[in-house]
Amino acid sequence: MIPKLIYRRLRKRRIRRKSRMLAGQAQRHARYSAMITLAITVLVVTAHTLSMMHFEGFSFSDSIWLTLTSITTVGYGDLSAATPLGRSATVLILYFGGIFIVSKMVGNFFDYRGLRRDAIKEGNWSWSHMKNHIVIVGSEVDSEQHLLRLMLECERSDATSGRKIILISQSFDIGLTVAMQNFDIKYVKGRGSSPTVLEQAAVENAGIVIVLAWSDTDPSSDGNAFDVICRVREINSNAKIVAECVDDDNRRRLEKAGATLVLRPVRAYPEMIIGGLLNPGSTTILENLFTAEGERIVKVDGFVAGLWADIVSQHIHSDTGTLIAYRDAQTGKIITAPRGGSTISADALFLLGR
Known about the structure:
alpha/beta
């Protein structure tokens, strides 16, 4: 069982390494083909221009004009080759050369588009041109639902709306799902602890880096987060880094490594990540409520009516807690953070207390 597991992991690594190599080859091949095509074009234009000057006796300006109008198939007709050698040169050099150039350019274009499309889908493309974007460093097993909620929160918040998002993950072998593609998410396959993967995701130019816990129940995941934070800080000193921390004892360590915000993994509420980044300190309050450490929400039954501001003031003066919501006696709905001047009738109050 163990040898098979090791073999599968090694095989996946070889496949990822080969895919990245092919993606890099595609980009290098595109540049190389463009340079070759340009060189051939210059050679054809030069040869035909010199031929027109020699065989037809045209000036340099007339020769280059005839060459360019002929190779682009415009053909104004104001100049043309009249001698047998001039016409032969036009047919051999310009027409055959032009056909070769066009066919090569078209072939290179479609080859490049195909390789680029496959590389982008498989997460092997480099997004080095991106700037001020958001990079999400995924976990061991990423949930589509969790990631979609996190991306939706990025779109809803003014400080993060409109920024491109790059996801680093190993959980999507055949590419991102249709729902995630609708968010125009860029995908890089791999782990955030890999320098090559971080380079593909253009982390050096990122504005925000979100490091999800490798496992939300395993404290050893904090070691992976520490490694990623250190690597990000080495190449980008300005990015805001949000990191999930499984063990509270490691929180200070991740902050010293360079994390802007450290919070516990709350996979059911990814909104806390963006909310905590935009409102520093809010995650401490929410974590206390989730874990029942310190303050907690207390429900007090009983009919109460009057001005909300007066009811809140009474509880504060009596040191029973801070009111945050009530249950409407008529509709049964929970009303949170009502206006101070609201007149209420409630059959239950909710307050923050110890």
